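Cross-check.
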Amino acid sequence: MEVEIKTKKWGSSLGIIIPKEIVRQERIQEGQEIRINILTRKKTTGADIFGALKFKKPIQVLLDETDKDFELEK
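Predicted model, tokenized:
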């Protein structure tokens, strides 16, 4: 089962709260040792995308050209 959980400050540490649905389904008891896999996700930025692609024109020129296409006519 995979679920997204946010960490919370707990003293000088970080903790997680296991949702009750998972506790019931997995029959987790207080004091029981469990094993978890931690997968972190980095937010994708424009720099990540543009850094992976190679263009014939500089990125700023492409962005400027795109902005012109979206300008409203007066």
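The chain has a mean pLDDT of 83. The first strand starts at residue 8 and ends at 10. Passed to J.P. for a second look.
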